[in-house]
Amino acid sequence: MNMDTLERTKQHCETTKQKLLSNFAAASPRVRLGIVAGLVVAGLIVVVLAVQAFVSAFRPAQDENAKASLTVAVDPASYRQMERKLGITGTVWAWDPLSIGAEVGGLRIETVNVEEGAFVKKGQVLATLNSSILRAQLDRELAQLKHSKANLGKTIQPNRKQDISALQFAVEQTKAQVAESDAYLARAKANLDNARNNSGRYAALHKEGAVSAEEAEAKLTLERTSEAELLHAQNEVAAAKFVNKQAIERFSQAVEGGRLEDIQMSQATVAETQANVRALQAQIAQTIIRAPSDGWITKRDAHIGDISTANEALFLMVRDNRLEIRAQVPEKDLARLQPGQNVDITGVLPGSTSLAGKIREISPLVDVDTRLGTVRIDIPFNKDIHPGIFVHGQVSLGTAEVMTVPSSAVVDRHERSCVFLVEGNKVYSRSVSCGERFGDFVEVSSGIKPGELVVVSGAGFLKDGDVVRVSDKRTSK
């Protein structure tokens, strides 16, 4: 039923209603009840006819000559030579970030000589700590070192030159005493020999009666006295030699110096004190915080009056002013990258200026949770590039022949990508697998064949089975 039929039916029902109303006034109550029933039936008929007409008006045509609901343009799917590019994202960071802190804890910061953003040279003083306590300790150890060295010298040679000379003179004296004792011994031996000869001769003369007994006894007594003197002389020689030996030993000890074990103990004391001095000197040197390399100060946490904490960072520095981008790349794309490839970086400098980077290294480790690998990209230094910013980039992977369709032909519905293909004067959707985008085209790895016509305009308003009119068939390559 069309709209004309619906209109004629409404007019007929209206005429019938007017007639029933004109007869309603003159009719009996029973007749009036019948008239009301007739009016209700007529109204229901009108409603049913209206619903049928509405449904018929919006029902799609079932034949080939039905009226088209939309005019579309189509384009055939085809192979094209496209330059493959891999998009990456990452963060600008220092090539080798240096964290500079105090090696000595518990000291007050006295001076801070640089600010954030400063460019420094290797060895430049960044800050200083109060070293007064350490310097006092160093003075004490230096004094102790002098004492230890003096004690070592005394242990090695405890005698003065005058003492050694006196000992040497004593040796000479004892030698003279030994010589004198030897001479006295020789005289005693000679005296004893003479006394023995006289005693023997007088004993023989006494037997002959030539001398008296008293004279013979006197010679014998003299012999015995000579024997005692000889014994005394021998003892004096032995004593003189012993005294000489002791003098020689004392002189030798004085020349040689102290005992070996005493010298070793003194040497150990000197070495220990020297080690303490070096330790304090090193700690004082550590109170002067210097730049370990040329670089760019990006952060300062040092403040005058703060108390230093060992191994706590006071400054962060970009070593040698070298920046890099640490990009996180899915593991499936890592094999497509290699060191030396150029990267076009955007979003780094103000405006639309891009930056040329180069892949330096690809980390061999892939995160087990995110399945991402780290790619490090060198970029030229620029003070307007701030470490920590997020950037985008593209890596050129060369050209390849790929199946493509216009980007406008791909519609995302129900978490899937599809295109509408034209068959006759109707369209039907088909799921496709999309790859990279190349300007106005998108790669399709599966779902369609070369030459199949896809809708490129108005695809978002279509549904399966819609009748369309093709106004433009493109053949662009």
Can you summarize the main beta sheet? 6 strands, antiparallel, barrel
Measured by DSSP, the beta-strand proportion falls in 25-35%
SSE topology string: HHEEEEEEHHHHEEEEHEEEEEEEEEEE
Number of domains: 5
Q: Quick recap of the structure?
A:
With 477 residues, the chain is α+β, with helices and mostly antiparallel strands.
Protein model, in words:
By secondary structure, this protein is an alpha+beta fold. It folds into five domains: 3-58; 70-82 and 401-473, Beta Barrel (conserved putative lor/sdh protein from methanococcus maripaludis s2 fold); 87-91 and 318-400, Elongation Factor Tu (Ef-tu), domain 3, CATH 2.40.30; 96-130 and 287-316, Beta Barrel (OB fold (Dihydrolipoamide Acetyltransferase, E2P)); 159-256. 42% of the residues lie in helices and 30% in strands. It is built from seven helices and 21 strands. The protein has helices spanning 3-24, 29-58, 132-156, 161-208, 213-256, 260-286, 331-334, and strands at residues 70-76, 78-94, 97-101, 109-112, 119-120, 125-129, 288-290, 295-300, 313-319, 323-330, 342-346, 355-366, 372-379, 390-406, 411-413, 416-423, 426-431, 433-438, 441-446, 453-455, 468-473. The protein has a six-stranded antiparallel β-barrel with strand order 2-10-13-12-11-14. Strand 18 and strand 19 form a beta hairpin. The two termini are 49 Å apart.
